Amino acid sequence: MVILNGASSAGKTTLAERFRDLRATEGDCWIIVGLDDFTAMLPWQWFDTPQVNGPQGQHGIRFELSAEGLVLAVGAVGRRLFRVYRRSVATWARAGFNVIVDEVAFSQEAVRDWADALAGLTVTWVGVRCHPDVAEARERERGDRDPGLARGLTAVVHQFATYDFELDATTSISEDLAVELSALLDERRAVS
Questions:
Q1: Domains of the chain, with CATH numbers?
Q2: What are phi and psi of 60, to 5 degrees?
């Protein structure tokens, strides 16, 4: 299992896709599971963001303004959703699948819950870093994200996890990062 942790618009999803496709050419099956897959399951009424003002947002997922930009905060329903997400990932891994996770570990609580959910599994944490100006430019180009989310999350997302590897997606193309990640994992397997 590999957890790619980084801010919104850092390039994690594209990296995960390129890595999955690269490994598939070698006969190695990986699936991608991401935080966004699970947030998409929540009804709009449980979101409180600049674009959506759901009446239950305080109980679900909300974006709060920090000095750097927007950060993620969760209520009781959001915490429950994310606990299920993490345990779903563990279920895939325990069923024998290689899993690459597209993650935004936005709090110490999230990282602790990952440790609990993945107890007994071999997990590689990879920090995917991207300069906030570049992530913010990608955010604007995409047009499907709340402005300020990339910069705000860049300020907090790397505070809580301890990484086995770090990749810089600021200027590197995702294909090169996928090759680098694949080589790092192969080296790690050879040593263990």
A1: 2-34+85-181 (3.40.50.300)
A2: -105, -110
